[in-house]
Design goal:
single chain, 166 residues, alpha+beta, GMP Synthetase, Chain A, domain 3, Ribosomal Protein S8, Chain: A, domain 1, three-stranded mixed β-sheet, 5 helices, 38% helix, disordered N terminus
């Protein structure tokens, strides 16, 4: 085990009730030594985990942090009422990945703009899909569409925006 939970409380919490404490407990039981910082980002709350050796918590290609975030958000849902989304970031991994993801997708979107063809992006989790949808929601030339279904990994389709019907 790496150490004991050394999460630090923050005043004026904006996270959904119990989110920070739940994450502290989860990471503490897993034996990580860490501190937590909270940030409001748009409609979301980001819980930043600061720790030594972050790769253990991030996992291969972010799989562990994705699973932890998914589990935390599922545990926060109370009945039919949707909880505010909580993003778990470890040593700014999410921020760096978001930037790289947007750079990669922008190239594909340029292909849609210039050639007018539809492009299917690689499979993405809900967090990544949300980033893409938000980035291009006001784009007058392209639209992004996710398929319906229960799968956690889905491909976004980027296509030329259809003219509004009058």
């Amino acid at each position: 085990m790496e150490g004991r939970n050394v999460g630090t409380p923050m005043n004026g919490s904006t996270a959904p009730a119990g989110a920070k404490e739940l994450l502290e407990n989860m990471l503490g039981h897993l034996g990580f030594a860490f501190t937590l910082e909270e940030e409001k980002r748009g409609d979301d709350v980001v819980l930043h985990v600061r720790m030594q050796n972050p790769s253990r918590l991030i996992g291969r290609e972010g799989e562990t942090i994705d699973d932890l975030q998914f589990l935390l958000n599922r545990m926060l849902v109370r009945g039919e009422e949707p909880a505010q989304r909580v993003i778990v970031d470890v040593e700014n991994y999410r921020l760096e990945q978001q930037s790289a993801l947007l750079d990669e997708v922008k190239e594909m979107v340029e292909r849609v703009r210039s050639a007018g063809e539809t492009v299917d992006l690689p499979p993405m989790n809900a967090y990544e899909r949300r980033i893409i949808h938000q980035a291009f929601r006001d784009d007058p030339q392209v639209e992004t569409v996710s398929p319906e279904g229960p799968s956690r990994l889905k491909r976004i389709r980027v296509r030329p925006r259809r003219p509004a019907k009058s």
